[in-house]
Amino acid sequence: MTPIPDVVELTRALIAMDTINPPGNEHDCCSYLAEILEGGGFDVTVSEFADGRSNLIARIGRQDEDALPICFTGHVDTVPLGNEPWTVDPFGGEIRDGKIYGRGSTDMKAGIAAMAVAAMNKESAALTTSPGVVLIFTGGEETGCDGAKALCNDPELLGYSGAVVVGEPTSNMPLVGHKGALWLHAISRGVTAHGSTPELGVNAVYAACRAVGKVADFGFNVPPHDVIGSPSINVGRIQGGINVNSVPDHAEFDIDIRTIPTQDHKEIRAHLESYLEGDVELQTSVDVDGVISDDAHPWIQDVFDRITPHLGARPDVKTAKYFTDASVLTPAYGNPPTIILGPGDAAMAHKTDEYSEIDKLYKSVEIYETIIDGWCGLE
Ligand SMILES: [Zn+2]
Description:
This protein is α+β, with helices and mostly antiparallel strands. 31% of the residues lie in helices and 22% in strands. Strand 4 (95-96) and strand 5 form a beta hairpin. The chain is globular, with a radius of gyration of 23 Å.
């Protein structure tokens, strides 16, 4: 058995590996974790889904249909650094005032490190005869769950799971789900002409603007969900034309829709298409469903019970604002109860000078361990 790494040092080692997506390059990071987990008695597969891009699947325990393991999952890719200059080295893992700095520290290399260390801290002999644990560390999450989707195309590799914990940043508060995301790319086409003779052209920017104005007034007409709230829509980017003295023949914009479990993404797209009356053509760029677990489920209640002493109070039933790989993994596993729970702080995700708090990181290892104890009957 190789020694179990310290969770802070493991987080720093993961931050040092550039997994900015695009392009991702998650393979080396997955291989590094694979070696550590193999040393901890895990059966590990690093599965490449594109050149230099991998998922890691690590199992310990019975892992069968009659004794479903618990799945802990996270993504090893990060978002780009952004336009603002950083005041720290984004790959340095610098420690200052009880925080670890670096791209991906909060979202979500701290969560990955904590899951790996918590699982390795358990007596591997005891885990071997229990239902067990499956760790799924994906690539390509930030661009729409690409790694998780590739993994779910291989049911044998995916295996079984009876419950899912997603280690995205929640400051160690358990969240019972999140909205779905439907991202649409809207294109308007016109006819170009000299800017002094607009009557000879068809202005694509005008058509795009008409459509954007309508999107701002779009209503979903669905009652809010008790826990997850109402759907939302936002235009996040617009572009059109090439210079001031031409009639633009092309304009495009992107629509970000966040949905609730009672909505159907195909219906929303069809509805929006007819509502925009031919001013734009829509293409789907990301389509991931939401996830919501019944908070009365005995396992969810047990997780809340176990976390209460660590947080000092019983957490309220809440959901995350962002989407996660659970959009893909949870349905692929037959919709087991799922929680989002990780040491990072959601407010720091994707930010310049991103950091993760060390005390929350150590606490998350304890929380993941007690969840494993409960699921695998190790107490
Ligand atoms: Zn994330």
